[in-house]
Amino acid sequence: GVFLYNHLQQKVRNAEALAQKYKQQQEALSAQLQVVYEHRSRLERSLQKERGEHKKTKEDFLVYKLEAQEALNKEKQDSMNRYGALSSQHKILKNQHDDVKKQLLDLQLQHNSLKLEHRKSLETHGQKLAQLQQERDSEVTSLQDTVFKLREESKLLRKAHQEVHSQLLSAQAQMEEFRQLKEALQKMPGLR
Q1: DSSP string spanning the chain?
Q2: Across the chain, which distance is largest between two alpha carbons, in Å?
Q3: Contact status, residue 46 vs residue 38, Cβ threshold 8 Å
Q4: Cβ-Cβ contacts under 8 Å for 158 (sequence gap 6 or more)
């Protein structure tokens, strides 16, 4: 009986030790489980926070995307309008360029024609000038001969009788007329 009692008591002690061991293990597991729960709770809160931030970021991104799309459409519309305006201006400038080019060609043709006419006019003017100079030289020679003859006649008239004094005055008047005629001929622009 004692042996059995001791044996049972030993089993009880072993069972208590085992129970104590299991209890310690259970407490350790409970502590670990508590840590795991707390960690899980923190993870869930962090995940919730991340989801909220993600949702906010997604909404912000959608707003930004919408604004960017609107800005892009507006910029595209402005670019199309500017392109249309530049295209119209280009057509206008091209037409003006064609007109100026045509006017330049017409002016070049007109310039060549006027240049040819000017050359012909110069040749004709040169011929006329040479002819007028020749005629002037001939007239001057004739007038010089006339003046010389009148001077000789004047000398003779001075020696003549006083009765021909009126004739001398007439001859002097003729000399004055010839002098005026000579000056008038020298002042003519065609003979200059």
Answers
A1: -HHHHHHHHHHHHHHHHHHHHHHHHHHHHHHHHHHHHHHHHHHHHHHHHHHHHHHHHHHHHHHHHHHHHHHHHHHHHHHHHHHHHHHHHHHHHHHHHHHHHHHHHHHHHHHHHHHHHHHHHHHHHHHHHHHHHHHHHHHHHHHHHHHHHHHHHHHHHHHS-GGGHHHHHHHHHHHHHHHHHHHHHHH-TTT-
A2: 220
A3: no
A4: 168
Residue carrying structure tokens 């001939």: 138
pLDDT digits (tens, 9 = 90+) for 40-93: 999 999 999 999 999 999 999 999 999 999 999 999 999 999 999 999 999 999
| 81, amino acid identity | N
Rounded to two decimals, the pTM is 0.35
> For residue 145, what are its two tokens?
């001969």
